Amino acid sequence: MIGRACQSAQWTVKLDDEFETCVEDGIDLAETLPDTRRIETLEKYLQVMCEDSQKPPLFLEIATVLSEAGISALTTKDFLPALQSFHDCYRPVQEIRRLTRETGDIYNEAKVIENDVAFHMATASALQAIKAGSVFQLTYSYCKLGLYLYHNFNCYGNKHC
Structural domain tally of the chain? Predict the structure, then answer.
């Protein structure tokens, strides 16, 4: 931040503490909102922040909310929203990586989220493929049954089959 170099160490520590308190309060206030609105609010907050060092906790909160939304959608077998939420986790995790220079507790938490998201995304993709394959298999089976009945019983137009 501009002016830090000409201020005392005590002043900069106090400023950092106040920024941190402000960020924590913003995250706490956003917790009362539904997930979509919560993410929108945190994103808007990020846009007006001038201090990059205070952004990682906000990005971590966004990544956490998206990850939890994806896991929740996955447990109800709602694969498309799950995959979308997992995909949307990429940006906040990458921003944390950039802003923290891949060090510290927030980076470590983001790495855990990144690994969880990768695992759950693979699971969601596999389950979606199995579900799509099951629908295809079921449709294929019904078509085979229809063709079997038609060819073997010549029931076309015969009401007594």
Answer: 1
Q: For residue range 12-60, list pLDDT tens digits in order.
A: 888 888 888 988 998 998 999 999 999 999 999 999 888 888 899 999 9
Q: Do the Cβ atoms of 83 and 121 come closer than 8 Å?
A: yes
Q: What span, in angstroms and rounded, lies between the C-alpha atoms of 123 and 20?
A: 36
Which domain range does residue 20 map to? 4-153
Q: Which position has the token pair 């995304």? A: 121
